[in-house]
Structure formats: structure tokens, C-alpha cells
Amino acid sequence: MDDEKVLARRFETDRGHLKRVAYRMLGSMTEAEDAVQEAWLRLSRSDTSEVGNLSGWLTTVVARVCLDMLRTRKARREEPLEQPAAETLADADDPERTLEMADSLGVALLVVLETLPPPERVAFVLHDMFDLPFEEIAPIVGRSTDAARQLASRARRRVKGGSDTIEPSRERHRTVVEAYLRASRSGDLAALLAVLDPEVVLRADASAVPAGVALVARGAEVVARRALTGFMPEAQLALVNGAMAVVVLRDGAPFRVLRFTVSGERVTEIEVLADTDRLAGLAVVPV
């Protein structure tokens, strides 16, 4: 029991660092916490008596968990609920404050990271953000040391090349979301259809729809009519983890959040969140 308490204290010492690593890779506070919790479960089941560097061991475990989660997400073509962490995490002594600051920093980097294949993202984050040597990154991504170095190099080039094109797309994203909200408020079906991609997909969590209503809707006509039917007059624009979204606030807290994927001038995906646990992980700033 004493050994377990000592192990738990050691883990708590590293929790902030592990959460930062996971958040950078996954872009979601909720998923980062899940990854860190999985690391604790693996630690509690493992014999670490011969582990010389427990912090390094835990970082490796979290990185492998995150890589698996990224691969699963990609296979399912899922997007994280939150934006990824920002380019610079300045306050190492206060990890919770650091993570709160992350959404307001390095937005260009955040968006580009989401485009990277999982092994590239992991190699880049571990090496360029946390100074892990490629000799330790290689077994995590299942590549040779030279191949791991190449993964990080490719990621670095993509990050550098993509940062110049992010801000205009953010403005376009805002314009499209504003048009969606304006059309929904006015009940203008034609205007709503004009801003929706013909193949748009709406996905809602179970808390966001009445019983018996499908969680997924496809096609501009279906999504538009559903948007008009379920529109809440108190809906407003807000920044959700740095991205423009539509929110409904109740007693100052988010009650419902609509997040948008935009391509060109149209909405291609809408995610409707109402589950309180999922909403709790989002930073919502009305605008």
C-alpha cells in the first residue's frame, strides 16, 4: 500500500506535464485527460521497479496512447471536440493555467497540426515541443531513428508552409458561420440552403436531440429544415476554443454548442453538443 501511495505521488508530480503532452497531440482536453488516466492505469498494473526514469516512461506511455487515439480518430474520420494546444506553453509551474491559455495562442499552428498524419504529429510534438530525442521517439511511432527524424522534418515543413494561409481561412469560416446564424434567425430557408454544402452532415450527441430523433442528418434540405425547426432565439456567435461557433447560454454557461466545418464558402459538417461533460471541456467566449 505504501508503494502504491509513493507511486501515486510520483504520478501526480508528472500529471501536468503528461496532460500538456497529450493535449498538444490530441487537441482536446477531455481526450488528453483520458490519455493521462490510461497512463495511470498502465502504471498501476506494471512493475516499474527497474524503471530508472519514471517521467520518461510515463511520457512514452502517454505518447503511445495518443498515437492510438489519433489513428482511431483518423480511421473513423472524426475531428477533436477542441482545438489543439498552442505553439508555446509558457507557464510550466501552473499546467492548468497553461492549458487555459493554449486556445488563445498560436492558432495557425493549431489548425496545421490537425492536418498532419498521426505519426508525423507525434514525432513533431515530442521532438520540437518537448525535446524528446529521436532515439526515444522511434519505438513510439514504430519507425527507425532516421525515419522518425524524417517524420518530424516533414511535419515541420508543413507547419511552416501552412501558417501563412490559416488566418484568411479563419475569416472565411467566421463569415460562413455568421451567414448560417443570420439565415437561421430569420427563418430564411433559401439563404440557409445557400450556405450549406449539398452533402452537409449534421451530427448531434444524444443530449442535443429529443428521444427518437436521429443523431445524424445528411443533405442540405434535411439539415436546413432541422436547423430551422430546432433553432433557439437566444443562439449567438461565440469563439469556442478559438474557432467561431454558435452557442446557447443558460445562466452564463454553455447549454448548446454548434461547431462547423467549412470548405470554401459552405458548411460541410455541423456538430451539435449538449452533453454537460463534453461542454465542460470547451472554452466559450461570446462575441
Description:
- α5 (107-115) crosses α8 (145-162).
- Strands 2-1-6-5-4-3-7 form a 7-stranded mixed beta sheet.
- The protein has 12 helices and 7 strands.
- The protein starts with a helix and ends with a strand.
- The chain has 287 residues and is of the alpha+beta class.
Shape designation: elongated
Radius of gyration: 21 Å
- Counting helices, strands and paired strands, the structural category is alpha+beta
State the end-to-end CA separation: 51 Å
Q: Catalogue the unreliable spans.
A: 81-106
What is the count of helical runs? Answer: 12
Strand residue percentage: 15-25%
Write down the secondary-structure element order: HHHHHHHHHHEEHEEEEHE
Record field, number of beta strands: 7
What share of the residues lie within helices?
A: 55-70%
Main beta sheet, described? Answer: 7 strands, mixed
Mean pLDDT, rounded to whole units?
81
Strand order of the largest sheet: 2-1-6-5-4-3-7
| Quaternary organisation of the protein chains | single chain
Secondary-structure blueprint:
Elements: H1 2-26, H2 29-45, H3 54-75, H4 95-102, H5 107-115, H6 118-129, H7 134-141, H8 145-162, H9 166-186, H10 189-195, E1 196-204, E2 216-218, H11 220-229, E3 236-240, E4 243-250, E5 253-263, E6 266-273, H12 276-280, E7 284-286
Parallel strand pairs: 1-6
Antiparallel strand pairs: 1-2, 3-4, 3-7, 4-5, 5-6
Helix pairs in contact: 1-2, 1-3, 1-4, 2-3, 3-6, 3-7, 5-8, 6-7, 6-8, 7-8, 9-10
